[in-house]
Amino acid sequence: MDLKDVLTALALLGTGGAVGSWLSVWLRNRREDRVRWHSERRAAHEKFLTSAEKMYDTAIVIAEHIGNLRELTKWGEDPLFDEEHLLREAEKLDDGWATYAIDTVRHQRPIANSAQAQMNDR
């Protein structure tokens, strides 16, 4: 056995080790992907995130209008906040913007509640 045969054997062993290592990593990633991101789980995650995004978007709109109505009605920072009472107090004002805000909040609240329920179901 000469030097050329030894180098050839070492090259074959190195190539075999690299291919074996690559195959091991590929199989492990494939198994983890199948376990972690099963198609049903992926669909459930997508539905959850869609519901969360819808709830967040509607909550932002509601919070903005409620904050402005609190300033308009001089409601203050009462810790016992009742949204429906605030809306009834704002209805007493003769203000077009208040009417718009009330309608927006009453329209967005069921959407936010529905999105929250869907998010909890997921």
Short structural description:
The chain has helices spanning 3-36, 39-73, 83-91, 96-121. With 122 residues, the chain is mainly alpha-helical.
What key phrases describe this protein's structure?
mainly alpha; single chain
Structure description:
This protein has 122 residues and is mainly α. It folds into two domains: 1-36; 38-121, no CATH class. It contains four helices and no strands. Helix 2 packs across helix 3 and helix 2 packs antiparallel against helix 4. It is rod-shaped and about 100 Å long. The model has no long low-confidence stretch (mean pLDDT 81).
**Helix coverage percent:** over 70%
Number of strands: 0
Low-confidence stretches: none
Query: How many structurally independent domains?
Result: 2
**Strand percentage:** under 5%
- Gyration radius, in Å: 31 Å
What is the average per-residue confidence, as pLDDT, rounded to a whole number? Answer: 81
Count of alpha/pi helices: 4
SSE order: HHHH
Distance between the termini: 67 Å
